[in-house]
TrEMBL record:
Keywords: Signal. It comes from Littorina saxatilis. The lineage of its organism: Eukaryota, Metazoa, Spiralia, Lophotrochozoa, Mollusca. This is Uncharacterized protein. Residues 1-17 form the signal peptide. It comes from the Eukaryota.
């Protein structure tokens, strides 16, 4: 009996013990603070961290994915936005890196791997940088040792997407991560996306849940116009249950390799198709312009469940599904 109690106490402790690391590998495979794997298969920005407390700081980290067109199914992290706020006085530093800035730093063409964009603190007040000899990685090192943020660049040659990564490590004993869905890294509760899904009584795959959470989060400044339009449609046009319906119906366009690759191979843009899909679903399947644009993008591709046949009926009788 006692053993059972001790064992279940241990289980509870394990379920809530937040690891102080959140990272992405292969461009899209997130390992959250609870060590739960998730996938970010969309060429848009997301909040990996949002106002997570680590040591003296609140840290926000927004990677921006892109789709690699040459191999047509890989996601690569192209940009890395970092914001830190000193908890004691609210002073901030905000900046970003991307593949070019980081590569210039590694090649000794640029002095710093992250460019400051805003805030009263100077870069040198907060950070030093990792070494230039690191294999395809740049690191922001918080000066007093509170945390490290590493941005791994993809290698155009060889096993190229494997090195596309980020890693946030908090070394301070003061660590208070924000909850999912405010940040994808979560707060250390296991299976946070599934928990959220179950709390909402949604029965679908949790990928749809993740899409829903990313594209209804207007705190993220989407810079790609299709990502922005998809987020706006999901947030403003969709009413009630339509939001989740749009996520559920449209995510396979980006998340299922055979569909996404087919759209790319036909020289159309999967993120544009996703955007038109969201606009179409959020109009209650009445937006004829969205239907027409989408029909051109998914024509001659594998059937998108719940979508292709509606498009064929509503606006393109000769839509062909492979
Ligand atoms: C943080 O990153 C720097 C640069 O790569 C490294 O030298 C240092 O050991 C890291 N800190 C910890 C505590 O791992
Ligand atoms: C962690 O987040 C979950 C939602 O994902 C929430 O239900 C839970 O209360 C949070 N736990 C703590 C300790 O803040």
């Amino acid at each position: 009996m006692l053993r059972i109690i001790v064992a279940s106490l241990l289980l509870v402790a394990v379920a809530y013990a937040a690891e102080q690391v959140c990272e992405a590998r292969n461009g899209k495979n997130i390992i959250t603070f609870s060590e739960t794997p998730e996938r970010t298969k969309f060429p848009c920005k997301y909040n990996a961290l949002r106002a997570t407390k680590c040591g003296k700081w609140k840290v926000t980290l927004s990677p921006g994915n892109t789709m690699e067109m040459e191999k047509m199914k890989r996601y690569v992290i192209k940009t890395m936005w970092v914001g830190v706020e000193r908890i004691s006085d609210g002073m901030k530093w905000e900046g970003r890196s991307d593949l070019k800035i980081a590569r210039k730093y590694l090649n000794n063409i640029k002095k710093e791997p992250f460019v400051k964009k805003d805030g009263a603190l100077s870069t040198g007040d907060v950070f030093t940088f990792g070494p230039r000899n690191a294999d395809n990685k740049v690191t922001l090192v918080e000066k007093s040792g509170d945390f490290n943020i590493t941005f791994g660049l993809y290698e155009p040659e060889g096993d190229w997407h494997k090195s596309s990564s980020f890693k946030f490590e908090c070394f301070s004993s003061t660590f208070d991560p924000s909850d999912y869905p405010k940040q994808i890294c979560g707060n250390g509760t296991k299976m946070e996306v599934r928990e959220f899904k179950q709390a909402m009584d949604w029965t679908d795959q949790r990928k749809a849940t993740l899409f829903h959470n990313v594209f209804t989060n207007m705190d993220i400044v989407q810079t790609d116009s299709d990502c922005l339009s998809a987020a706006r449609a999901m947030t403003n046009k969709c009413k009630g249950d339509q939001q989740f319906e749009a996520a559920r119906v449209c995510w396979p366009i980006l998340g299922k390799p055979h569909i996404q690759r087919c759209i790319s191979q036909n020289m159309d843009s999967p993120i544009s198709a996703f955007r038109h899909c969201v606009e179409y679903v959020c109009s209650g399947y009445t937006d004829l312009n969205a239907c027409l644009a989408l029909s051109e993008e998914i024509d001659m591709c594998p059937q998108v469940p719940e979508l292709s046949l509606k498009v064929r009926d509503n606006c393109k009788p000769d839509l062909f599904c492979n």
